[in-house]
Amino acid sequence: MGKHSLLYREVYYECRNPDACAHVFVVELTAIRTTKASRFPTPLHKLPMTNWRNAANDRADNDDDKPSDPDVGIRPG
Question: Where is this region: Disordered (predicted)?
Answer without folding.
Answer: 52-77
